[in-house]
Amino acid sequence: MEMKTIVKKRTVAEDMERENGSEDCETPTGLNIRDETENGAESVAQGTLKPGSPIRPLVSEEEVRKLAERLYGIIVLEMCELDSYDDRNFMIHADSFVKNPILKSVSTNGYVMKIANSLDSSDESFFYAQNEIMLHLNKRGIKCPVPMQNIYGKYHSVEKLGQFNHVVRLLEYIPGKVFHGVPHPDKLFYQAGQFIARIDSALKSIDKEMVAKRQSIWMMENFPKLKDFLYVIKDEHHKDIVEQVLDAFQRRVIPNINEYEQGVIYGDFNEHNIIVNKKSSNVKEYEITGIIDFGDVCYSRYVFELAIAMAYMILEANDINTGGLVIAGYSMIRLIPLHEKEILRVAIAARLCQSLVMGLYTATVDASNQYILSSQTRGWNVLEALWAESDKDLLERWNSIAEEYLTHSLPLSTTTTSSQRFTSIVFAECLKDFVNHQELRLVLQNAAMILTQKNGTQQIRKTPIITPTVIAAL
Question: Is position 102 within any domain?
Answer without folding.
Answer: yes
